[in-house]
Amino acid sequence: DPTLRTYDPTSYAQQAVTFLCLDFSGTSVRYNSLPPVSCPSGVRAQINFPSCWDGKNTDSVDHKSHVAFLSGGPDSGTCKDPNFPVTLPRIFMEVYWDTVSFDSMRSEAMNSTQPFVFAYGDATGYGYHADFLMGWDKGVLQKAVDNCHCNPYGD
Predict the structure, then answer these.
(1) What is the C-alpha to C-alpha distance for residues 123 and 141, in angstroms, rounded to an integer?
(2) Which of 6, 44, 127, 136 is 20 to 30 A (C-alpha) from 15?
(3) What CA dihedral angle connects 24, 22, 76 and 33, to 10 degrees?
């Protein structure tokens, strides 16, 4: 939801969106919001898509109620909810941003601690999201899924 500006730690959908403050010479730190610090090697935004499907609907009015997260959250559990019994292949998206190039301009930002703002006005990162668009020829993706030798999480 691009309009979110607060974090609910009990929401699997919000747990599925994280940001890594990258430090290739040390330890990268994970945040649930855009990192409130300068990151030595940039920022990686990452999203886990829901892994459980209702088995019937390929879309829904809100574009998300036909799928659900695993029983333990984005990274753990199973599709044990009888309303979402079908396990989908795991979709994990990551985007790397070279924020280091802007460090010399941080002091000019409205918030120099965390100066980045998404185009839709989100300076928190809580509204960060992604969409899945099906572009495979008919039958190709299903064949890959049917012949997949994946673990229970689709990896």
Answers:
(1) 36
(2) 136
(3) 170
Q: Provide φ and ψ at 41, rounded to 5°.
A: -125, 15
Burial (0-12, 13-18, 19+ Cβ within 10 Å), 22: buried
Q: What is the pLDDT of residue 95?
A: 96
- Written as six digits, the tokens of 7 are 């974090």
Is the Cβ–Cβ distance between 39 and 45 less than 8 Å? Answer: no
**DSSP label at residue 153:** T
Residue type (1 letter), 90: R
- pLDDT for res 103: 94
d(CA 66, CA 121): 28
The amino acid at residue 129 is: H
Q: What is the 3-state secondary structure (H, E, C) of 31-48?
A: ECCCCCCCCCCCEEEEEE
Q: Which of 69, 72, 107, 105 is nearest to 88 (CA)?
A: 69
Q: What is the pLDDT of residues 10-23, one digit of tens each?
A: 999 999 999 999 99
Separation of alpha carbons 150 and 91, rounded Å: 13
pTM: 0.86
Give per-residue pLDDT as tens, 23-66.
999 999 999 999 999 999 999 999 999 999 999 999 999 999 99
